[in-house]
Every structure is written in structure tokens, then in C-alpha cells.
Amino acid sequence: MKNRWNAAEASALGDDLLAQRVYSSQLLGQDPELVLHGGGNTSVKITEQSFFGDEEEILYVKGSGWDLGTIAKEGFAPIRMEVLMQLAALESLSDADMVTQMRAGMTNPAAPTGSIEAILHAVLPFTFVDHTHANAILAVTNHDRGEARVKEIYGSRVLIVPYIMPGFVLARHVFEQIQGQDFFGIEGMVLLNHGIFSFGQTAQESYDRMIALVGEAEDFMKQGCSAFSFPTGEPKDLDLVKLAQLRHDVSEAAEQAMIARLDASAEAAGFALRPDVGDIAQRGPVTPDHVLRTKRVPLVFENGDLDGAVDAYAGHYQNYFQRFATPDLQMLDQAPRWAVWLGNGTVSFGRNVRSADVVGDIVKTTRETIQWGEELGGWSPLTESALFDIEYWDLEQAKLKKAPAPRPLEGKVALITGAAAGIGRACLQALYDAGAAVVGVDLNPEIEELQDDDRLGVICNLTDDDATRGVVDETVKRFGGLDILVSNAGIFTAGAHVEKLEPENWDKSMAVNLTSHVRLLHHCVPYLRHGIDPTAIYIGSRNVHAPGAGAASYSCAKAGLTQLVRVAALELAPEGIRVNIVHPDAVFDTKLWTPEVLARSAERYGITVEEYKKRNLMKTEIKSADVGNMVAAMAGPIFGKTTGAQVPVDGGNDRVI
Ligand code: ZN
Questions:
Q1: How remote is the CA of residue 155 from the centroid of ligand 1, in Å?
Q2: Residue 597 Cα distances to 333, 367, 494, angstroms
Q3: How confident is the model over 523-581, as pLDDT tens digits?
Q4: Which residues have CB less than 5 Å away from ligand 1 (the ion)?
Q5: What are the beta bridge partners of residue 323?
Q6: Superfamily of domain 7-224
Q7: Do the two domains 7-224 and 240-401 of this chain adopt the same fold?
């Protein structure tokens, strides 16, 4: 274990105890071997003056919703110690009453609700208390001999607490256990199957003890299996269509579109190649609160038995619920949150990229910890019923009722071509704003500016068939599938009457404006087939129904594209894939229309630029964003029963109407 304490940084904080608490909490949060994504909690007890001038002792404890790695002063809930100690002395206390009383006992009602471990922090007679779910502690204690091992490692330097559900009952148990306890020589407390507490009179003492104690568990682990290293491997039969099918089935079970993040790294593949992976991966999570993110067990499948595998998982989940549920409980969705893809790696699921990645990080830790635990003599986590109590405890059920509705395209995956600027960029933005994960494709290198977790830009020449297939595959590999194709890439070839039309002009327009779209759809269909309300949307042109002289190569390609949409709509309707086209006109906020070109065009008609821009029946200006919003609407449920449609976005044109 690395001790990250920096004496200069710490001493710069002076005697501000809360600042010191923030500092060492962040040190803990930076180490994924200790805590992950909101796991763990810390506190400090500070005596301060109340609003009325009296002295009172306040427990500043991590607020719920905050992450140790990024916590700030306002992330701590200030709760009066007097209230917490009164609560600790009660015989029983419901979760709801505990939260109400903790909130009522805060000196600042605007602060976040304190951690459910607040009472436990309060009863420990130390200024600083740190709590983590360190991997090494979990690998050591998730075993029948867990307690004996802890004694072997630490002797009497730590208190040992059996597994008890976190919250009041655990706090109450510890409160009783430590009555009359002489804390001389005691540095911490190990919670079997759960994690570890360290404490001290200074921030550094408590932090140093945490690092040292966890380090000793690591040493024990490494001595116990000195020859062990994580197995690595290469994915054996990574079939991206199977990945898309998996995501589809999981989304159906979850009753919402889910992002699927594949981890086919050497470590993930090595894990999925273990002959015993089906057994060790399905015994349970490494620490109880992971069950809220990962469910109790993953789905385990291989290519040959994917059909029906998610249904079978859902059946087992229902059975688990029925075995332990009381009548007042509401069953959660029955979809897995992660999967072991035998021979290939692991996959994590979430309603957006962020939540799938949080699960992915927990899965990585889980893989490592259970392999250590197994190597150390056998991995045996908590019982089903103990985990059920965490998954279904009151406060989590209450959160369900308050969860915000997802955005219309949350969990969807969209591929947009010609997305560096203009209409394509507006489509990408509208889909992203509606919640979709997006991949933008363009010849223009500016597309590579999109490099977030849920927005990817790829340079691609769509007249290159291999490159096109590569981009489609990359989309599926990154987000697990494809639901929305916006086929927009195009060029406006120079106008010329047919008599003077150069063959290259015609060929180029056909290649970019028509053939590349056929090829792209060809590569997308196998994935769209497994999409969630899958759809392909094309960007046509007013030209199709109201052509002008001198634009044969452009108009004919767009007319061909329209016919492609009609044929594809017929072919794909039985599979539930909708295919539609929008016909925009006079969208001038694109790179094509420079001020000079606009001025020249207006002059030709003898009108001002402003009049020229609104040359339609409604006398309204059409912007890229108008087309983007139409495309986002067509990708969503409003157009859910529409296919083969041609929708103008042109302010009304008497030749089209
Ligand atoms: Zn904990």
C-alpha cells in the first residue's frame, strides 16, 4: 500500500480540522484498492460555538452522494454528537427515523444527509475515523476462517466485528461491544465480509493506520499465495453481433435501453478463460454495498448459449426475490448489471455510459479480489439473505420512488455521419442532448475533438468500404450495440447542365451521396437488428421533389437515396427497424454557405440576404438545429410507428406541397 501523505501539503492546512479531514479523505478516495465510487466514509469530531454562543461537539461525517476522492468541506454533514449518542443508546431505530433524526440534528439543514454509518463514527472515541472497503481486507475476510486470519495478522491491535447489516444495528452492536473498552494499542476495527475502520487523534494518525493495516493484509495475502499472478489471455471468439444481442436482451429485461461496456483486456479475458469462472464469479459481491450497483451475481454465458440466457437469469432473480421478500417490497428490474462472457471478457451495463463505467470499475475490483480470495484458500462471500437485505433495504426502496425519469434517448447508441459541422453536427448534438451515446464520423479531422466517455469522433472516408465497416464495429465495441443511424454525409457537387456535366462530377456525387449510404446501411443492419427501437434516418434534400436545372448529379443521388429509404423501409419493417428521410431546404448556417456565396445568390434573385434566407411559404429561416431536433424526434418514441416517411424541413415549398 502506498502512503500518499504529503507533509508539506498537510501542514499548509494549519489547524483547520475539517480541511485536514477533506485532505486525507481525498487521499483514501484516490486509491481504488481502498474505495470505489462513493464507497467508504470518514468523519471528524470538532468542538465549535453554536449560533447562540454555546460550545457543542459536532460530527462532520461524509454526506451521501459524495465521493471520497473528490469530496469538499460542503460534502460533510455537521451532526450534533449529543443527538447521535442519544440515538446510539436506543434499543431499536428504523432507517427512516434514523435519517429524520440525523437531519434534525444537523447545524446546517442545507448540508447533505450524513452517511448511514454516522452513529458508528460517533461512538468511536477518536477525533478522526476512516472507513474503507479495502480489497485486501475483503480477500482475507470473505472466508470461513476470516476471523482467525484477522487475529493471525493483527493480534489484539484491531477489534473484530462479525458481519452485521450496516446502519443502526451495526452501530448499536459496536456501541455495546466497546463499552468499557480500553483503546490503548488499538488502531482499528475489521468488519468481516465488509471492510475496515481505522481511527486516531489526528488526521495523519488515522490515515497512516489505515494504510499500514491494509498493507499488512496485503502482505498476508501475498505470502499466502506468493506464486500467484492474475491469469491473462486473448479473447477467443469475440463476436460483436453477440454483444449487440446481449445488450438487447439485457435492455428488454431492464425495460429500458442499456449501454453495454465490453472489457476484453488481457486481465478480463484471463478471468473469463478460467475453467472455474462460472463458479467463483457467481458466489457474490466482495462487499455488501456493491450489490446495489452490480446485483448479487453476474450473468455467465458463452456464444453458443446466449439465446434465452438473460431470460433464465431473470427467472433466477424472481425466484431469489420471492424467497426473501416481504409483501411491502417492490421488485427491482430483473436484468443483470454485469456479465462474464466466457472465453472473452466481462461486460458491464448501465442506463448511460457513466453508470455502466461505475459498474465496470467495481467489476474490475471484484475480479481481482475474488481471484485473490480463491487463491488464498477459497472465496466465500456473504449469504444470499444478507445481500438481499442490503439490496432491498428501506432507504434504497425510497430512492426508487424518487428516481428521475430518464431522458428520451438515454441508453441509446447513435452513429452520425458527416458530423464535424452543419446538419450532421446539429443531429449529433440533439441526439446527445436527448441522452444518447454518440459516435460522429467525418473526413474532417476536427471530428476527433469528440473524445469523451460518451461522445466519440472518428475520421473516416465513407467511400472506403473497409473503413466504413471498421467504424460501425468500433461503435458496437464501444457502447455494445447500435440503435440510431443518421446517414448524413454528403457533398454538393458543382452545378452544371447535363450537356456540360463532367463524368467525374457525376461519379463523385454518386459515390458519396448514394453508394456510401448503401454500403453503410449494409454494415449496420446486422447490429440494428438487435437495436432498441432501431432506426435509420437519412438526410435528403428539397431537390428530390422540387429539382432545379443544373444539379443533376446532386439531385439524382438524393433521389436515389430517397428510393433506397423506401426499399429499405419495406425490407426492414418486419424486423422492427424504421427507415425514414428528412428533406431539408435552405439551411444556411453551414460551412457551404459563406457570406459571399449567400450574397451572390441573393443578388441573382434581386433580393436581400435576409429575404433570400426566408424564401419559403412560411417566411421562416431554417437552421441546422431545426433539422437536428427533427432527427432526434424521429429517433424517439413519437415516430415509433412511422417508417418509409419523407418529412420536409423547409418552411413550406409550393412545388413540394
Ligand atoms: Zn462500509
A1: 22
A2: 56, 60, 13
A3: 999 999 999 999 999 999 999 999 989 889 999 999 999 999 999 999 999 999 999 99
A4: 195
A5: none
A6: Class II aldolase/adducin N-terminal domain (3.40.225.10)
A7: yes
